[in-house]
């Protein structure tokens, strides 16, 4: 998708991860405003059958032994853990 950009935050533990995402979004909006460009965090910013790679998060959950338990990358990063 033209003009697509991604940035990463973390690693973080627990509620701190969400705090980092909100702070990063606040900083990003300030930078975008200074640059005079348009920012959209829509899950699918362009209508049609094209890529829906807008706003999303990817989360990894590990158990105490550092084995990966689940990976969520659905709408806004949420996916049922089975």
From TrEMBL:
Residues 1-82 form the GS catalytic domain. This is glutamine synthetase. InterPro entries: Gln_synth/guanido_kin_cat_dom, Gln_synth_cat_dom, Glutamine_Synthetase. The lineage of its organism: Eukaryota, Viridiplantae, Streptophyta, Embryophyta, Tracheophyta. One of its GO terms (molecular function) is ATP binding. The keyword Cell membrane does not apply. PANTHER family: GLUTAMINE SYNTHETASE, GLUTAMINE SYNTHETASE, CHLOROPLASTIC_MITOCHONDRIAL. Homooctamer. Keywords: ATP-binding, Ligase, Nucleotide-binding. Its EC number is 6.3.1.2. It comes from Helianthus annuus. Belongs to the glutamine synthetase family.
